[in-house]
Every structure is written in structure tokens, then in C-alpha cells.
Predict the structure.
Amino acid sequence: MKLKICGMKLNTSEVAQLRPDYLGFIFWEHSARFFDGEIPELPHTINKVGVFVDADINYIITLVKKHQLQGLQLHGHESPEYCRQVAEELMKLNKKIEIIKVFSIKDEFDFESLTPYEDVCDFYLFDTKGKLPGGNGYTFNWSVLKNYPSNKPFFLSGGIGLNSLDKINEFMKSPESKFCYAIDVNSKFEIDPGLKNIEELQKFKEAL
């Protein structure tokens, strides 16, 4: 099971010492975790993911180049055509950059809406529907995923903390976890927005 720690801002180097598989940097200026600094040198095993919300494609490409991002997380209302355009621009860079398309769920979800995205992204990420595009701090009903119709790997996100370990363990025993590729954490491991609790993250990573 892969681990993605999102909302990096204030203690990135310390979090990186835990060697998660992905670190997420939010490039949406309305977020309390908006990242506008320089990403420190990270272990080569960590993939840097830029999180964008309905951003201008030129802005995305500029930051991909600046920070040498290995992944993009599209967390807004990006259309399949938009995702295709992003993928085409990324191809010009001659580097493999993963595209993660986010969908928000509460108690139900129309999985047919995924169909147009099948060929334009590498992963899905399922997050909790809330007031903000991410970082809302509570989980959605994971049993909704029993209706998941795709074989595309997905990230599981939304209010996951130390107290979620038993729930994750139960989920991983269920058929709906078959294509669960990674767990994504953020706000439940924070002292302040963008300042992560290293001790709790370490406990979670070891247990995971």
C-alpha cells in the first residue's frame, strides 16, 4: 500500500525523512496550505505531486518545470478534454508525469461519470465532498466503492487519521479495495495547516 502525504508547506524535509511514496504540494492560492516556496531536495524514491484546482494549463506546465514534479492532482471540475490537453502538454516534456483526477463523494456517487476520464488520467482519487476541494477533515462512506466499475488504480482520501487504521484494515479485506493503490492523508496529521505531526505520521506509516 502506497502512502501520499499532502498539503506540504512548513516542515517538508522532516516529513520526507519518513520516506512516503508521494508528497503533495498545493498550488491553489485559496488554500491555507498554498505552497509558494522552493521544494527542498527530496529522496529520489519520493514522487512530488502538484495539486491544482481548475488551473490555467500554462501555469501547471510552468510549475511542473520549476519543481520537477512527477505527478499532477487535478482537484477541481476539470473536464476530460482539459485532462487530455494537460496530458498532451506533458508529453512535450518527454517525461512520464502521472495525472491523478479527483472525484468527491459523500454517501453516493455516479460512477458512470468516470467513463470519459478512463483514457486521460493514470489514477483516480476519491475524496470527501465538502465546502473545500480537499482538506475537509472527515471521511466519506467507503462502502460506496463496492460499485466501482473500473480497473484503474485509485487513491483513498478524506479525513484519514491514526484512528482510521482499523477502518482501513477492514476496507482492505473487502472486494471494493481491489484497486486501492494508495492512502492519502493531510489535515488529520497537522498541528497547523501545512505543519505536519511527524510522530503521528510515523506511527501511521509503520502501521500501514
User: Anything to note?
Assistant: The CA atoms of residues 3 and 183 lie 5 Å apart. The mean pLDDT is 93. The chain has five helices and ten strands.
